[in-house]
Amino acid sequence: MWRLPLWPEYRKQLDSDIADIKNSGGRPAGTITAAWFLKEFVEDGVEWAHLDIAGTAWAEEATGWQPKGAAGVGVRLIHEWLRNRP
Q1: Which residue from 3, 2, 29 is spatially nearest to 12, judged by alpha carbons?
Q2: Domain limits, the chain
């Protein structure tokens, strides 16, 4: 986990000629532009997080400990984070 650099240059990738905002900035900096998209809908002062699971959410075949299908990526992370909050 790490804090994504939400620099204004990345936000520009979501600009649209016909809509208020695009829901994808394209492949370059996709994780960061996805976070920028979410940030647009979160009020100032509200803590939020973006878990980018697009590439790891689904396993096409079973490998070792991972069964085929939904991977559950991020579930343990969120569970532990919530469990350890004061």
Answers
A1: 29
A2: 1-46, 53-86
